[in-house]
Amino acid sequence: MAVAEYIVRTKDLVKEYVMGDTVLRALDGVSLDIRRGEYISIMGPSGSGKTTLFNMIGGLDRPTSGSVFIDEVDIAQLDAYELAWLRCRRIGYIFQTFNLIPVMTALENVTLPMIFAGLTTDEAIEKGVELLKLVGLGDRLHHKPNELSGGQQQRVAIARALANDPGIVLADEPTGNLDLRTGKEIINLLKKLNREKGVTIISATHDLKMIDVSDRVVWIRDGKIERIEEREKLELKVGEIEGEEVG
Amino acid sequence: MKRKGRISEAYKEGKIGRISQLPLRIALKFTLQNIRIRFGREILAAGGTLLGTAFLMSTFMQNRVLHAVEKNLPPDIQARATWIAVVALVVCTIGITNSMLIAVSERFREIGTMKCLGALDSLIVRLFLLEALILGVGASIGGSILGFIFSFLAYWGKYGWKKFIHALPVGGTIHDFLLVFAIGVVLTVIATIWPAYRASRLPAAAALRVEV
After folding, report:
1. Quick check: A9 and A36 in contact, CB under 8 A?
2. Sheet holding A224-230: strands in order across?
3. Pick from B113, B120, B208: which is nearest to A84 by CB?
4. Which residues of B fall within a CB distance of 8 Å from A118?
5. Mean pLDDT (chain A, rounded)
6. Total-model pTM
7. Pairing state between β A200-205 and A39-43
8. CA–CA separation, B191 vs B178, rounded Å?
């Protein structure tokens, strides 16, 4: 079989949280196929289940029922080592709060996942420098996170997410803690990497600026997929949405 | 269901592999930086070991000096002194456990992030134990020296140089130093086992939590 068309597939995904006597159904039968190389945004209000879906796709949490396939491997079948490997090599994570390791320099943060992946220090440093140049921080290699602006920290996080050439980059509200302009820059950087490296980008967000660059937008509401919009249809609506954003 | 077959197939295709541990040099550097950046907090955590070992050291010295100087000392006084010192050390150990548990809950996001990047549970345990080991070594050296100096000055003042220095055997004191040092280090590491385990059980999804 050639390279699978779908890099991530979820099938009838259900996640329930038990809170005291009540059972909260955060995801209610979500089936979603994500194509290789796609830039996909998962949109929805807070509490809609988008973070839960994000956690499931990223192998960060186990579904109550249903399955998640990454590269056609059912991740429920993986043991702790394999799951760690998957997170290390196949998925890159970007967080709203950047989550750089505070005691490490930009370069050390980027090289950490490569060390986990078994690269030698020299190889990791060489590649880390290259990645930081790619995100425009070639002159900030030895700065600690607290010496960098929010946008710069998120760039380091993007370089770190790409460290092991993952097929998938998962971004959870990547622009949530950034101002409008910096957010736009980060979105453009993600889009550029998506185009040039062919990496699949899955972003949970309610930042409407994301719609501009997405190939598809998945709208989630009450734990279900409300609708999926393709790019062609989206472009017509961008005008209206930007109007909304100002308010 | 041919689920198992699918996994071994994935292995063969190189889709799934195993993860590497962090080399000791990098782990050590990371831990030292961690201690340096949170120095005040770490000193408080290590303070338990420092004071405990200082107390134990001075108790051991008291036992030796009193034994040599006061011939008719009832033996149970020494036993009681040692007992009090040991209880004090246990109390300090619980204090270290508490500080380390706080450290774990403070670093939830960092630990979750490490796991997202591919860190195994065992690595998280190792990093915390390594930190405890470094703190334990530092605090035990400091504590035993501190205890030694204070007792030294106290008994020098009480009995005068000549009488006191004869009561203090060199070999015995070195023995006490090593014993106190070992007890301090071992207790600090033991105190961290439960917090380290708790840290390793944090879900990777903790990285996404926004609130503290």
Report:
1. no
2. A91-94, A168-172, A200-205, A39-43, A216-221, A224-230
3. B120
4. 19-20
5. 88
6. 0.85
7. parallel
8. 20
The answer to whether the CB of B109 falls within 8 A of the CB of B203 is: no
Amino acid letter for position B159 = Y
Q: Nearest Cβ partner of A81 from B10, B30, B120?
A: B120
**Cβ-Cβ contacts under 8 Å for A163 (sequence gap 6 or more):** A92, A110, A111, A112, A113, A114, A117, A127, A128, A131
DSSP type of residue B22: P
For residue A160, the chain B residues in CB contact (below 8 A) are: 117
Distance CA B189, CA B125 (A): 11
* DSSP 3-state of B165: helix
pLDDT in tens, chain B (212 residues): 334 444 445 555 555 566 667 788 888 888 888 888 888 888 888 888 999 999 999 999 888 888 888 777 777 888 888 899 889 888 988 989 999 999 898 889 999 999 999 999 999 999 999 999 999 999 999 999 999 999 999 988 888 888 888 888 888 999 999 999 999 999 999 999 999 999 999 988 888 776 54
Does the pLDDT at position A34 exceed 50? yes
Smallest Cα distance from B98 to chain A, Å = 23
A6-19: strand order across its sheet: A22-35, A6-19, A65-70, A73-74
Which amino acid belongs to residue A138? G
> CB–CB of B203 and A60 under 8 A?
yes
A23: number of Cβ within 10 Å: 10
Q: Which residue has the higher pLDDT, A187 or A245?
A: A187
- Asked if A229 and A31 count as a contact pair (C-beta separation under 8 A), the reply is no
Q: Do A160 and B117 make contact, defined as CB atoms within 8 angstroms?
A: yes
DSSP of chain A: --S-SEEEEEEEEEEEEEETTEEEEEEEEEEEEEETT-EEEEE--TTSSHHHHHHHHTTSS--SEEEEEETTEEGGG--HHHHHHIIIIIEEEE-TT----TTS-HHHHHHHHHHHTT--HHHHHHHHHHHHHHTT-TT-TT--GGGS-HHHHHHHHHHHHTTT--SEEEEESTTTTS-HHHHHHHHHHHHHHHHHH--EEEEEE--GGGGGG-SEEEEEETTEEEEEEEHHHHHHHHHHHHHHHH-
Q: Give the contacts of B126 (CB within 8 A, at least 6 positions apart).
A: B21, B22, B27
Which residues make beta-bridge pairs with A15?
A: A27
Cα dihedral across residues A108, A114, A118, A124: positive or negative: negative
Among A71, A41, A65, which Cα is nearest to A201's? Answer: A41
CA distance B70 to chain A (A): 54
Using only the alpha carbons of chain B, give its radius of gyration: 24
Q: How far apart are CA B165 and CA B148, in angstroms?
A: 13
